[in-house]
TrEMBL record, chain A:
Protein name: Tax1-binding protein 3
Entry GO MF terms: protein kinase binding
Lineage of the organism: Eukaryota, Metazoa, Chordata, Craniata, Vertebrata
PANTHER family registered for this protein in UniProt: DISCS LARGE, PDZ DOMAIN-CONTAINING PROTEIN
InterPro entries in UniProt: PDZ (IPR001478), PDZ_sf (IPR036034), Synaptic_Scaffolding_LAP-MAGUK (IPR050614)
SMART domains per record: PDZ (SM00228)
Membrane topology: Peripheral membrane protein
Listed GO CC annotations: adherens junction; basolateral plasma membrane; cytoplasm; nucleus; postsynaptic density; postsynaptic membrane
Annotated organism of origin: Mesembrinibis cayennensis
One GO term (biological process): establishment or maintenance of epithelial cell apical/basal polarity
Predominant cellular place of this UniProt entry's protein: membrane
UniProtKB/TrEMBL annotation, chain B:
Biased composition range(s): Basic residues: 66-84
Biased composition (Basic and acidic residues): 40-51, 108-118
Domain of life: Eukaryota
Annotated protein name in UniProt: VNG2A protein
Topology in the lipid bilayer: Multi-pass membrane protein
UniProt keyword annotation of Cell membrane present: yes
Gene: Vangl2a
Native source organism of the sequence: Mesembrinibis cayennensis
Record lineage: Eukaryota, Metazoa, Chordata, Craniata, Vertebrata
Family: Belongs to the Vang family.
Pfam families on file: Strabismus
Transmembrane residue ranges: 158-179, 199-218, 230-250, 270-290
GO CC annotation, single: plasma membrane
Locations listed in the record: Cell membrane
UniProt signal peptide: none
Keywords: Cell membrane, Membrane, Transmembrane, Transmembrane helix
Amino acid sequence: YFIFFSFQQRIEIHKLRQGDNLILGFSIGGGIDQDPTQNPFSEDKTDKGIYVTRVTEGGPAEVAGLQIGDKIMQVNGWDMTMVTHDQARKRLTKRNEEVVRLLVTRQSLQKAVQQSMMS
Amino acid sequence: KIESLKVTVDFLKVPLGLKKPPLKEALAAVPGPGRPKPLGVERHKPRRSDTMDNESQYSGYSYKSGHSRSSRKHRDRRDRHRSKSRDGSRGDKSVTIQAPGEPLLDNESTRGDERDDNWGETTTVVTGTSEHSISHDDITRITKDMEDSAHLDCSRHLGVSLAGALALLAFLTPLAFMLLPQLLWREELEPCGTPCEGLFISVAFKLLILLLGSWALFFRRPKAFFPRVFVFRALLMVLVFLLVVSYWLFYGVRILDSRDRNYQGVVQYAVSLVDALLFVHYLAVVLLELRQLQPQFTLKAVRSADGASRFYNVGHLSIQRAAVWILENYYHDFPVYNPALLNLPKSVLSKKMSGFKVYSLGEENTTNNSTGQSRAVIAAAARRRDNSHNEYYYEEAEHERRVRKRRARLVVAVEEAFTHIKRLQEEDQKNPREIMDPREAAQAIFASMARAMQKYLRTTKQQPYHTMESILQHLEFCITHDMTPKVRGGHGGRYLTAGPTIQYHKDRWLAKQWTLVSEEPVTNGLKDGVVFVLKRQDFSLVVSTKKIPFFKLSEEFVDPKSHKFVMRLQSETSV
């Protein structure tokens, strides 16, 4: 049978330089100033956290293992659960940082048998 | 002469009327040629009204079973009209203007339709009596009517005369109070100047006001005769009686016996009586008029024959008054009762005629046999495959199509007919021979639409309700008031929809005798859940009561400045 659970993951993304910008290769949605009911990835529709809405193929985020639907909890130690959309963007795109370490929460659907085998 | 056409509501009197078999069938069996009837044949013309003998219980006339109260009147009228014009055309091929009183649409041609359908199925019904004899049932019915109406008249007049006498007594008493000392011991009275004169004037005006008020409140034509005494009125009469009697008592003891010399006191005593009477009048206004104005109950009136229903709001009324209220509204709200529209066409129902025969094998259990048998038959009939619903559906669709086609023709005919008439303007020069009054104008254009009208009415089975005379009158009315043809034949016009009963000619349709059937005494007030029935011969109105719920209104204040809005954001940023 299947169970639905979430686990945390640490992901380290090395930014890619494209011209004058450093890009990470994914898109975010959410924030405390946004409408949480429009979020297709959240389990709880009042969750105003920052979610990964798109991951570009072959980008640094995909390489690092970020997946669509992940909720970003921390960026380089900064909390991302209670920030506005713009603040989140700013924290991710600091010009002087080449590497960002994210703490994300991912929901997963696994077979229980497989899970017990792995543990 | 038997007094007829009284407005009566008889309590618990089920009409004795004998169910006259529809004359249609009797005459359908008369062998006759098809549509075009030979002119000038002295046919036994059936009473057109028999096919629609619904509304009137006693004004229902039957050729065959003799005289009831108002039938004689109607029959005489009809006979007179019949003798006037015998050469009217009977068929529907030609249109002629017939004398008033003749029905536009011949009954036999109507029956022609049905006859074609069910030629094999009509039966001859013999009613057993001839045109001029009275059957036994009718005699008993008539005598019963006479007794009842006589009895009711007596009690009614008694009540009215009693009330009148009491009112007169109450009115004259203050005058008597003031006059008696003057008459009896005038010499001993103390002179009484200005205050007495003031009191005289006030008494005069108060009595005038009382008179006017009583006239406005009580002296109205009764709109109905109630089976039981009006409780509130009786109460008020008793009150007035006690008041007057007690005043007389005190007067007799204190003033007459002791020959009081203080005239001003006597006059003030009289004035106090007048005040008390005015207050009783106020009480009467409140009890009889005001209390029922505020709506407390919703009455649902359903006609048993075809299910037409309406809702009315009334206040606190007794059952009998509520019944009269309902009846007043019935005549202008409910579409007229047309029994021709009620039944499923015969072709649909005839298939159901064949039944099941039940054989019981084994022991006979006599007590349970009949119910068991009937139940078995019903169950078997229900399980049998029955396609009559199909036929009903197609029949309905076909009928609908026919009606629409005829209606279209009628509308076009009417519109066209109206284009031939123009109101005479002052400046038009026409010779006097061409100028017509509304009646002639109506007759002139009637011919061009008569055929379409006739066919339409026959299709919608409305033809018994509209005589030629009534159609001409309506035409005249429309022409006089410059109404558009739509009123005549347009959408929702008078002939296209079945109107309320009161629209049709009064004498025919407004029968006023209804029977009130109720489980509770009819002077009880209305309560939630009370059901009573107003019966007529062919149908009844079932009225049920529901209390209007108690509404809890709460207030919520909304500051106009509190209406504020934000945009719904869902941004997505790529990083």
